[in-house]
Amino acid sequence: xxxxxxxxxxxxxxxxxxxxxxxxxxxxxxxxxxxxxxxxxxxxxxxxxxxxxxxxxxxxxxxxxxxxxxxxxxxxxxxxxxxxxxxxxxxxxxxxxxxxxxxxxxxxxxxxxxxxxxxxxxxxxxxxxxxxxxxxxxxxxxxxxxxxxxxxxxxxxxxxxxxxxxxxxxxxxxxxxxxxxxxxxxxxxxxxxxxxxxxxxxxxxxxxxxxxxxxxxxxxxxxxxxxxxxxxxxxxxxxxxxxxxxxxxxxxxxxxxxxxxxxxxxxxxxxxxxxxxxxxxxxxxxxxxxxxxxxxxxxxxxxxxxxxxxxxxxxxxxxxxxxxxxxxxxxxxxxxxxxxxxxxxxxxxxxxxxxxxxxxxx
Length: 362
Prior knowledge:
- Its main location: membrane.
- By secondary structure, the protein is α+β, with helices and mostly antiparallel strands.
- The protein has two domains: about 5-130 and about 275-360, no CATH class; about 145-245, lipopolysaccharide transport protein A fold (Sandwich), CATH 2.60.450.
- The chain is built from ten helices and six strands.
- Strands 1-2-3-4-5-6 form a six-stranded antiparallel sheet.
- A hairpin with a 4-residue loop joins strand 2 (about 160-170) and strand 3 (about 175-185).
- The relative contact order is 0.12.
């Protein structure tokens, strides 16, 4: 790594870390602490659950601050270099803007990759832990629930062995309605069982009024058999099934894909889950998009002031997340394709960023 690259990265690091702390503080102060205060006043939450709630809330906040911090870092670092005429001196020495901006773009790309991994391995588990504490330790809401479109996954050795779908699940009645059981061998669907309902009786699930379809290796129907009463190959009791059901923000990318495929086989609308799936990549990649925008903007006149850079960052962030909120809602509602709903803000950002980069290089 050349001395120039190290120098630029050193300029970038301080504002980036400051941005993570500053933006995280804003989220914590305006949202997290307010919710925690409500749990204390309304439910009398104790010290231990409150501390764990605070810790579990941090990963999802930090992921959101990575793009913001990269924008702030690129604006402030290049703004300072430009304000002290160091950029002018570098370009007088024959260095192009592309060469100066390359280390920023590389760092932003790796920040995006790290953010993808972090949001996949840490954030879903933290969200699940947060919701579990709220539901079972603070609200003490342990009464049976009624849920729709549940999916039960049986996994062995990282491979799906069985997917069970129920259009409605009533935990208090220990009953599932409109049940479909799909059996797999080596990731190949070999059997489908449909039943009117399934009831938990004598520590086992019994399906009523259904049909079994055996499939050939080519996926064609081999034979069918009707039944009035049939044992369902699911060992989990109603309480375990109720606890197992996850919200979209608690699922990993793999779990989201499995859930979406299971719902699609039953012709259930999946736009909400698909939008969430695409956002797992779109939001982390915003770090690279913001670097494309912030780096050339830092070269504009009168950018040496940190307050101007911070203010400009807030304006850009507000515009980006306003667009993201609108397109996400449209994608979840099915008004536009989910992939477009998740990626449209980044597409706009890339177009604007490339224009600014081209203009700065001239």
